[in-house]
Amino acid sequence: MLKKIINKVIIGSCVGLTIGVIISIVFNLLNNSNVYYATSQSFYKTYNNHITPTIISFICFAIIGLISYLVSEIYDVKKINLFFKSIIHMLVIYFIVLLVGKYLQWFANISEIMTMSIIFLIIYFIIWGIMFFVEKNKIDEINKKLKER
What count of other Cβ atoms lies within 10 Å of the Cβ of residue 54? Predict the structure, then answer.
């Protein structure tokens, strides 16, 4: 049991860190930045060096991944239907992203929060749709094999 939890912590943190770094690299490329910023430049300005906000950002990316991975355990709960599981999963991830985004100064006003929210929902539903069809195909394969017996 402890080994399973440690695996989830490591996997979730690594996935979150990887996704966060990729997204930050994309934003750096889009902004034609000559210096790598893991998060907003305004967050970097609150420190007198470059490494501290980078490390803090990486830790926050890992936390988002960890929580996202752990909250996915809700899909194993049998007493809740898929719709409510998905809503709970999405809201937990959304609020952690919102909190981390506020801390890392990803947005300065309500308009930027709304833009982030729309982007979040689009990405979430694309990923959810892909995962739904992957799982549906697995179930269809299992049913096909059962019918062949």
Answer: 18
